[in-house]
Amino acid sequence: MTESEPRPRAFVPQLIQPGDIVLTTTPGRMSRKIRAFTGANISHAMVCVTKSSVIDSTGDGVHARNLERIVLEAGCAGHVLRPLTPLTADQLRTVISWARAAVGTRYTMLEAGKSVLAGFVAGRRQFCSRLVAQAYREADVHLVSDADFCHPGELLRSPLLVEVPDVLRELTAEQEAYRREAMDHVEAMRESTNALLRCAREMSSSIESLNDIDAYLIEHLESDDHLVEALKSSRYLELWRDEFERNAWQYNVALMEGHDGSTERKRRYCEELLEDEKLGQNRFVQNHAGYVTLNATHPRQYFALKVDLYDLLASLHARRVKAATEWLERRELIEPVVQELLRPHTPEWFESLRAWNPMHAAQAEASIQVAGSADVCTVCADDPALDYELVSIVRVGPGTIRLCDFCFKRRSADGPMRPF
Question: What is the DSSP letter of 419?
Answer without folding.
Answer: E
